[in-house]
Specification:
Length: 390
């Protein structure tokens, strides 16, 4: 028994290095990992860039927010067409327009839990004349170490420092716009990606498995000497058989389907029905969890196979109502404070249409319908342009 145990231990069949101890037997541990294997979330932007399902949700959310129209109004609700803050919102910097700026800020917020933008101000009046989004992964928020007894933001945040490659830049606290994702965190928000690590990992590994099955056909079997009593293949013969099996044979295009060998070989199949792996079902379940975390609905995404046009329209309307409008109100409040100032007769608002932000339900419903129709029309025009290009 001791010999068999030592052999199994040497092969790594048991988690414990000593199976037999002091006249008694230890409990046999399971083969393989006991803990789930998850992707690293140290680089949140890399996770976003490498996961198509996560990126589609974040990009859709940011696009919906950027589609809104930003206006400046007075206390009577009258739109101010020539207000300087409106000029900045429409053209925040020489590199992009207002839609690109809002898209970048919302994308950073959804990835990192925070979004930051630097303010370029005039020397005398401190009027904001430009804004630039700052990548949060390269920004250090310098804290004073004080929170609960402070009355101003300067008493909590001491400034900001940007570092990337050989470039560094610092800003005073009042030179940076800070947007914190709602939720936990007093000073800074927390990324939802941290909560979704398991689901994002599952999707990644499912696609890796499918890629292996499609390209290398997986571990479909073993070629071995046909008799247990026969002399094993020499390393040279084994290497030759492996090379031919990998390079020349297979079910893919350009490969031979039949393997004829002068060696005495036996084929041991190791295939497994892919439908029993439930890869597609796993992706659907994990995607639904991601959608729920960001307040979205499967009906607006192409992976939903049973969506009707009416379901698509109503789902899009619900996202505008429950996610986009609250986000726009949060952004509008911050932009008002940073670009106009508090306790003034003007404020910034985001409009769905001419009737947007009115309090009665009928006008708001009509505004949502108009915005949804406009979003659908933009998508149709985009598809028509793609067809023309092709």
């Amino acid at each position: 028994m001791g010999l068999v145990t030592n052999i199994l231990n040497g092969l790594g069949y048991f988690g414990s290095s000593n199976f037999y101890k002091g006249g008694g037997y230890n409990q046999i541990e399971q083969i393989g990992n006991k803990e789930s294997i998850c992707i690293s979330i140290d680089d949140l932007e890399k996770v976003y860039l490498e996961n198509p399902h996560l990126r589609s949700v974040i990009d859709t959310d940011a696009s919906m927010l950027s589609n809104l129209k930003w206006v400046v109004k007075n206390k009577k609700g009258e739109v101010q067409q020539d207000h300087p803050a409106l000029t900045i919102l429409n053209r925040p910097n020489p590199l992009g327009n207002g839609k690109e700026f809002i898209t970048a800020m919302r994308t950073y917020e959804l990835i990192h839990g925070n979004a930051f933008a630097s303010k370029v101000q005039t020397a005398l009046t401190k009027d904001v004349v430009a804004m630039y989004p700052i990548p949060p992964q390269h920004l250090e928020v310098k804290l004073t170490g004080k929170i609960f007894d402070q009355l101003t933001i300067d008493g909590i945040i001491d400034g900001y420092k940007f570092s990337h490659n050989d470039y560094e830049k610092t800003w005073a606290t009042n030179e940076v716009i800070r947007i914190k994702q709602k939720g936990v965190g007093v000073i800074l928000g927390e990324s939802k990606i941290k909560t979704l690590k398991q689901q994002i990992s599952n999707i990644k590994y499912v696609y890796e498995s499918r890629n292996v099955l499609l390209n290398e056909r997986g571990g479909i079997g073993i070629l071995s000497t046909h008799s247990d009593k026969a002399v094993p293949m020499s390393p040279r013969d084994r290497k030759s058989a492996e090379k031919k099996a990998i390079d020349e044979f297979g079910i893919g295009i350009g490969k031979r389907k039949i393997h004829v060998s002068s060696l005495g070989l036996k084929w041991q199949p190791m295939t497994f029905p892919t439908k029993d792996l439930m890869l597609f079902e796993e992706v659907a379940d994990d995607f639904n969890v991601i959608l729920d975390a960001y307040g979205h609905n499967m009906n607006i995404y192409s992976s939903s196979q049973s969506t009707t046009f009416q379901n698509f329209k109503e789902s899009l309307k619900a996202i505008y109502q429950n996610v986009t409008i609250p986000a726009s109100e949060h952004y509008a409040e911050i932009f008002t404070r940073e670009l106009i100032g508090e306790n003034t007769e003007y404020y910034i608002a985001a409009e769905l249409s001419v009737d947007a932000l009115q309090q009665d339900a009928e006008s708001r419903y009509k505004a949502l319908n108009s915005q949804v129709d406009a979003t659908i029309k933009m998508a149709e025009n985009s598809l028509e342009q793609d067809d023309l290009i092709q």
